[in-house]
Specification:
Layout: E1 4-8, H1 14-17, E2 22-24, E3 28-32, E4 39-43, E5 49-55, E6 61-67, H2 75-92, E7 100-105, E8 114-119, E9 122-127, H3 130-134, H4 136-147, E10 151-156, E11 169-174, E12 182-185, E13 189-192, H5 207-223, E14 228-233, H6 239-244, E15 250-256, H7 259-271, H8 276-279, E16 283-287, H9 290-299, E17 304-309, H10 321-336, E18 339-349, H11 356-370, E19 374-381, E20 399-405
Parallel strand pairs: 1-4, 9-10, 14-15, 14-17, 15-16, 17-18
Antiparallel strand pairs: 1-3, 2-6, 4-5, 5-6, 7-8, 8-9, 10-11, 12-13, 18-20, 19-20
Helix pairs in contact: 2-4, 9-10, 10-11
Length: about 400
């Protein structure tokens, strides 16, 4: 098939020259031989080369740029990009035997629409766009070539595919059989459900923030012999509470709407040596809506030393940002009412439609309504295996605040 051409309107070239990877329909003057899910050469109004990417007329983002060089997108290109991503992780991460990290972070690693996560000897591929979906076999082959990966599983069951005219897709791409859970180790040991778990099985992006919470709780424990209370909301498989560890010295309340997630959390606690008879009732696993449970805690005058708020994405699109802002404010307002003076709130938004600045303003509004005082101890973001391309600020989806509350 002859490669298509996508022409850019006069005066609309600057974002492309500045290496932003998305081209919206309004910037395109014409398209020739452009087939959905196929490569196109992007040219300016004079027909001069700007970039090469792929096309989908069904998406509002009609072209996504793969390269700003006049180079072929083939097997060599895939190996080059995967090798570069692997090199970055080797530089910035310490890989344990049961390593777990994001190997490739879509647009932020300059490969739009592709996510690859590693869990021990399993690699999980997520194809978000039509072109990437059609290239899965070639990508799997390049991944095996570059990393030696034997087991590759697809978890392309995300909402974003609907905008590309795609159905959800899951299944083995290489190797197998897939076990029920895969064990990883990042100080604490976790069981990851690759097939049915949230995201690709685990929240790898929160690794550094889990370690930060662990360090804070250890320091607090060194200052006081009293048992520390942690409220871990939207807890999924118990990641934050389990990273904090110190069974018998920490009482964690883990709240999630999903019973399977809580069951996996209990298994993770047991995997790390927690035993209720030995350590006492130091961990609770409560199936509940987090909004409702917060209101329950407020009514009961519950007090916690630490609260972690890590809700799912509340805004899928900018049109939902106002509704999401109300949700974030409600969560944080309730949390402020529950924290012991001198305690900490670790609060997050993973909604790309909510900027870091807006999120901080929302949390400030909640603080003002609560009548409390708080200090920003640290701005929080994703771990180093989730880099953000400087030319793609939309890639900073995870933002958070560590607050000390008085």
């Amino acid at each position: 098939m002859t490669e298509g051409v996508a022409g850019i309107k006069r005066g609309r070239e600057k974002p492309i020259r500045n290496q932003h990877p998305w081209i919206y329909s309004g910037a395109i003057s014409h398209a020739e031989n452009a087939a959905d899910g196929e490569l196109v050469t992007v040219v300016n109004h004079k027909g001069r080369f700007l970039a090469r990417g792929y096309w989908n007329s069904q998406s509002q983002i009609q072209a996504r740029i793969m390269t700003w060089r006049d180079e072929a997108i083939g097997a060599d290109w895939w190996r080059k990009m995967l090798s570069r991503a692997v090199s970055l992780r080797a530089t910035h991460l310490t890989h344990a035997e049961n390593a777990a990290y994001r190997l490739l972070n879509a647009e932020n690693d300059f490969v739009p629409g592709l996510i690859i996560d590693r869990y021990a000897d399993w690699y999980v591929l997520q194809a978000l766009t039509r072109f990437i979906d059609q290239q899965k076999s070639a990508i799997a082959a390049a991944l095996a070539d570059v990393t030696g990966a034997r087991n590759i599983y697809e978890r392309s069951d995300v909402e974003a595919r609907k905008h590309e005219g795609l159905q959800p897709a899951k299944g083995l791409l290489r190797g197998g059989p897939l076990p029920d859970v895969v064990e990883i180790d990042e100080g604490a040991r976790y069981l990851v459900d690759i097939k049915k778990g949230q995201k690709t099985g685990f929240y790898l992006d929160q690794r550094d923030n889990r370690q930060l919470l662990r360090d804070l709780i250890r320091r607090r424990r060194a200052e006081s012999r009293e048992r520390i209370k942690l409220l871990n909301l939207f807890s999924y498989s118990g990641g934050f509470a389990l990273a904090a560890g110190q069974f018998g010295e920490l009482h964690s309340v883990n709240v999630d709407a999903s019973r399977p997630a809580l069951e996996l959390a209990e298994r993770n606690f047991q995997l790390n040596g927690y035993d209720e008879k030995t350590h006492g009732e130091t961990a609770e696993f409560i199936q509940a809506d987090a909004f409702d449970y917060l209101q329950h805690c407020v009514r009961e005058n519950e007090i916690f030393d630490f609260v972690v708020l890590d809700p799912p994405k509340l805004a899928q699109h900018k049109s939902q940002a106002q509704r999401a802002a109300r949700g974030y404010k409600h969560l944080n307002l309730s949390a402020f009412k529950l924290i012991q003076a001198g305690g900490y709130l670790m609060t997050f938004s993973c909604s790309g439609a909510i900027s870091r600045d807006l999120f901080q303003k929302i949390v400030f509004g909640a603080l003002a309504d609560s009548g409390r005082q708080a200090q920003v101890i640290r701005q929080l973001s994703a771990a180093a295996d989730h880099p953000v391309a400087l030319s793609f600020p939309e890639g900073e989806y995870l933002k958070g605040l560590l607050l000390r509350v008085f």
